[in-house]
Design a protein that fits this description.
It is built from 10 helices and 7 strands. The chain is α/β, with parallel strands linked by helices.
Length: 271
């Protein structure tokens, strides 16, 4: 799994399987009754509790996020919001509760099974101002200057070319628009066995880059007022680490300054 195309294929296949499950099934880390991809990876390990948020729909929550980007996104009534890697629609439906009937929410995802699940959820809820579009975050099939706010939840870390992803966010945002994303980053150098394993990649760890590099990419694309609103260290259970590291490596890992963090960061597009 070396080329960007191979990485994308792995992510699509993994999340296509996850789309067939509930949050509770994802916690058991088995991708379907007939699949052989059961593992010790818990895909809900980063997730936050959405249950008290207006617009929350349990059927759309697969536990795949690592924050609540709408919490810091400054979304207003009437805004047009884009959710990158929208999955089953969880953040889209929360955003829709904020923009109300006069706004609009667009979800972008490149996994067919996720789009099917999201559209079923939308139809059941009866929303006419929410749409789900198939597309690649690195090359969005969306017009320039068309969104007030872009959000994303634990997805950009899986994108192979993050410079291109943030360039595309800049392109589709309206002047004075802004983004707010929750994502996974690292501090220090993760052991190679964690970084290279395809299951951990789809589980949001190995695709992560260093925090300072992540913020530098944002600034290099020309965004302003970059702000980290929330930062939380992720504790990986020892039984999960045991699949990838020896006992000595686990001990060194736990006693080092190396860490895996979820962050929620925003920045503005200049006028």
């Amino acid at each position: 799994m070396n080329t960007p195309e191979e990485i994308k294929k792995v992510v699509q296949e993994k999340y296509g399987e996850i789309a067939k499950q509930s949050k509770q099934q994802n916690e058991s880390s088995c991708c379907g009754a007939t699949s052989d991809c059961c593992s010790s990876v818990d895909y809900t390990i980063f997730s936050e509790n959405y249950e008290k948020l207006e617009g929350y729909n349990p059927d759309a929550d697969l536990g795949l996020g690592c924050g609540i980007p709408t919490q810091f996104a400054g979304i207003k009534k009437g805004n047009h919001v884009l959710d990158l890697g929208s999955g089953a629609g969880n953040d889209c439906f929360v955003a829709r509760a904020i923009v109300r009937e006069t706004g609009k929410v667009t979800g972008l995802d490149f996994t067919d099974a996720m789009l099917v699940k999201a559209n079923k959820n939308k139809e059941r809820l009866g929303f006419t101002n929410v749409e789900f579009v198939k597309g690649d975050i690195e090359d969005m099939p969306l017009p320039d200057n068309s969104f007030d706010v872009v959000v994303s939840n634990c997805v950009l870390n899986l994108v192979t070319d993050k410079h291109k992803a943030f360039s595309e966010i800049m392109r589709v945002l309206n002047p004075n628009g802004h983004f707010c994303v929750s994502d996974v980053v690292i501090k220090g150098d993760l052991p190679e066995t964690l970084r290279k394993d395809a299951e951990m990649y789809a589980g949001c760890v190995s695709g992560a880059i260093k925090l300072n590099e992540y913020l530098e990419i944002i600034n290099k694309q020309g965004f302003q007022n970059c702000t980290v609103h929330k930062q939380k260290e992720i504790s990986i259970p020892e039984d999960v680490l045991g699949k990838y590291l020896s006992k000595d490596e686990i001990e060194r890992f736990k006693n080092s300054e190396i860490g895996i963090f979820s962050i929620t960061v925003s920045a503005n597009k200049p006028s």
